[in-house]
Specification:
The structure holds two protein chains of two kinds. Chain A is 45% helix and 18% strand. In chain A, α7 packs across α15 and α10 crosses α12. Chain A has 16 helices and 13 strands. By secondary structure, chain B is of the alpha+beta class. Chain B has a single domain, classed as 2-Layer Sandwich (Alpha-Beta Plaits), CATH 3.30.70.260. Chain B contains three helices and four strands; from the N terminus they run βαββαβα. The longest helix of chain B has 11 residues. The chains are: A alpha/beta, B alpha+beta. At the A-B interface, α1, α3 and α10 of A face α2, β4 and α3 of B.
């Protein structure tokens, strides 16, 4: 028999604490769409996406109604387009426009995979695709792009880091009349996961099956509410235990939805990404969890320790709840998408240096950070290099999604609206990093022993 | 499949009757009911057997909301509770 308290707990999680399935993402391999003629290649790609994802949105909505669980986003991720561009040649923006058209046809809200993997060097198609990213993002609406520039096994491709600094800036400049949204759809990765369902960094890795369903769950509000009920002098191991229990429950819900969706769509079930993904809605914030653990404001001393514990406890609880966990799995700290982070950044408690330290212990990286519009491309590249170094040395995924706010300066505010939120323009160092960035070349892969 | 109905709100007469009436109209068999009134607040949890081919859960919820418009109503699939609260 189901316990009455359990029923009420689940209902208050969904109703008051913003528990939801953040995304159902269908990963589609486009390897079989490659053709030496770009127009034929685009046609095959369009047909395959429409055929595979035709019922994705409908199925998501059905599951939502059947179980009474909100499913916020339905999305598609595809094979890195650089591979197709390498086979076909031609202007890669054609692919971006085709992806945009296919995604709109099936009704998803984002499509990811306008990507290149260049951690060790550039092959055919990679450079053309990277060069075209700002244009592709400004001429499409829902295409997301990512570039992997480093990994623990390959080191960091500093030539790619240099170019990506320029591309981030160009992406913002080309969309300056649309809140610089281009840069918000572009992620630079180190150790990019191949099965991540979250945008903007989702792509369908080449080692993945033809078609899979990946599910991203979320629920920072639920974790915060559970911690709020604990006494302020409860030891941290008890706090970690509570987070584990909640993470377990949240992930079970994701597992249920993922299994059901894969069964209904006749597609294999990939992974659950058990991430705490905040939204700008009040209460749905990772920063508030950290504050509930015992910080006056997120960003003060002790934030890294609290986040390290939170991230680890989420993984431990979630792993037990699902037969296959993957993706990014952990706590996200996107500044503009998190009410608590926005408040901390506006108050000056949260600096970019602290955010960088936090990324060493959480699941992603410098995410949705608004920087002054006059920041040089070299400085953006240097921030990317710093972040990639953290990922490379610690064998973890790190990412950079910076938005240069064209025309705005430190202290101003940029508002995207919707899930992307808003945020203050953050302070950066003024001193130049041009020499190290212009050196180019590669940072060799780090030693995996003698760890100190 | 089984579904769980919860109804919460200010106590008035006829809430249980109105909800049960909707269940009967939708061919849903009531399996279990727990109900209490605390400080004038009504709280009911009802477990029903739904013939999936006939009615969707959302449709049942909409009908109950229409029958007791002042109450907070949820109708959810039983599996969610089983999975979330049991290992």
């Amino acid at each position: 028999m189901i316990n009455m308290n359990d029923i009420m707990e689940t209902i208050s999680m969904i109703d008051e604490e913003n528990l939801d399935i953040r995304t159902i993402t269908m990963g589609i391999s486009l390897i079989d769409c490659a053709d030496s003629d770009i127009d034929k290649s685009c046609e095959k790609l369009y047909n395959k996406i429409v055929r595979k994802a035709e019922k994705l949105v409908e199925t998501g909505e059905y599951i939502e109604r059947k179980y009474g669980i909100p499913i916020i986003n339905k999305r598609v991720s595809v094979t890195p387009i650089a591979i197709l561009a390498g086979a076909s040649g031609g202007d890669p923006v054609k692919y971006a426009k085709t992806l945009d058209r296919a995604a709109k046809k099936v009704g998803v809200n984002f499509i990811g995979g306008y990507s290149a993997l260049v951690q060790k060097g550039f092959s055919a198609g990679d450079m053309e695709l990277i060069e075209s990213i700002p244009r592709a993002l400004s001429e499409t609406d829902i295409v997301c792009s990512s570039v992997n520039i480093g990994s623990t096994k390959a080191g960091i491709n500093m030539d790619a880091v240099k170019i990506m600094g320029q591309k981030v800036k160009e992406a913002a400049e080309m969309t300056k009349d649309k809140q610089c949204i281009g840069a918000a759809k572009l992620v630079v990765f180190c150790n990019a996961p191949e099965d991540n369902p979250f945008m903007a960094g989702a792509f369908h890795g080449i080692s993945e099956p033809d078609c899979v369903i990946n599910v991203g769950v979320s629920g920072p509000g639920v974790v915060r509410a559970a911690l709020a009920k604990m006494p302020k002098d409860a030891p941290l191991n008890d706090v970690a235990e509570t987070i584990k229990r909640i993470a377990f429950k949240i992930t079970r819900m994701g597992q249920l939805v993922g299994t059901e969706a894969s069964k209904m769509l006749g597609v294999s079930f990939g992974i659950i990404d058990l991430s705490l993904a905040p939204t700008p809605a009040v209460g749905d914030s990772v920063a508030y969890i950290l504050e509930e653990i015992g910080l006056e404001q997120c960003g003060t001393h002790g934030t890294t320790a609290a986040l390290a514990m939170l991230n680890d406890a989420v993984k431990k609880g979630g792993v037990m709840a699902s037969h296959s966990v993957g993706g990014l799995s952990g706590a996200f700290i996107p500044v503009s998408e998190d009410a608590g982070m926005i408040a901390a950044a506006e108050a000056g408690t949260l600096s970019i240096e602290k955010l960088e330290a936090m990324t060493a212990v959480c699941s992603v990286g410098l995410d949705m950070i608004i920087i002054p519009g006059d920041t040089t491309a070299e400085t953006i590249s240097a921030i990317i290099a710093d972040e990639a170094a953290i990922g490379m040395v610690n064998s973890k995924t790190t990412a950079v999604r910076l938005i240069p706010a064209i025309g705005l300066k430190e202290g101003d505010s940029l508002n995207f609206g919707g899930l992307l939120g808003r945020g203050p323009v953050m302070k950066l160092r003024k001193e130049s990093s041009a020499v190290i960035i212009n050196r180019g070349g590669r940072i060799p892969a780090p030693l995996q022993s003698l760890k100190n | 499949m089984k579904a769980v109905i919860t109804v919460i709100g200010k106590d008035t007469t006829g809430i249980l009757a109105a909800v049960s009436m909707v269940c009967a109209e939708k061919d849903c068999n009531v399996i279990d009911v727990t109900q209490s009134v605390l400080d004038g607040y009504f709280c009911m949890i009802m477990i029903i057997e739904v013939l999936e081919e006939n009615h969707e859960i959302k449709e049942i919820e909409t009908s109950i909301v229409e029958a007791v418009p002042k109450m907070v109503v949820h109708v959810m699939h039983e599996d969610i509770f089983n999975l979330m609260h049991r290992i």
